[in-house]
Amino acid sequence: MIRVLVVDDQELMRVGFRMVLGAQDDIDVAGEAGNGNEAVRLAGELRPDVVLMDVRMPVLDGVEATKRIVEAGTSKVLVMTTFDLDEYVYAALQNGASGFLLKDTPPDDLVSALRSVAAGDAVVSPAVTKRLLDRFIGSGQLAPRDASALDVLTDREREVLTQVAKGLSNAEIAEVLFLSEATVKTHVGRILAKLGLRDRVQAVVFSYETGLTRPGGV
Question: What is the CATH number of the domain that holds 90?
Fold first, then answer.
């Protein structure tokens, strides 16, 4: 059973999420919070598998709440936003969120995303993530990282990381690089371990920060 904490300052949104998630046999809505402070407290008490986190909230926003929850190691965080080019989302990703979705995401996609995050995967929307990072690099808000950080990777691992940054799945990367899916999975695991990254979302951000992937790149 996947235990979820729903966090949103709008009660109607929480009710909607509860209805969608509560209809699933494998998902239990363990609790609800209306601001970041409540989210941090309840995450510590309930220790849900996933926190579905709004980013724009009073008292304590979802960015800081995400940071505290991830640092405490209590739960994974999936952030929700109304705008796909939201500076709060970029900050949440930097602070350890396992991905983000738009609030108008179809119910089936929301459920699928929660299951993925609970299973240890990251939710990376290729088009949205790319636009988000392109925007912040262009505005100078993305903190650059020394490209020498990539030196620990083999040439093949760099190729795989480049494809990960495009938002491709392991199966898609396997097709592009003419590898087996199992081999790609092994490469991704080694990349994350070598670079000290939690998941594919952080790998995407890292790729941009080091210049391996550039704004407007395909």
Answer: 3.40.50.2300
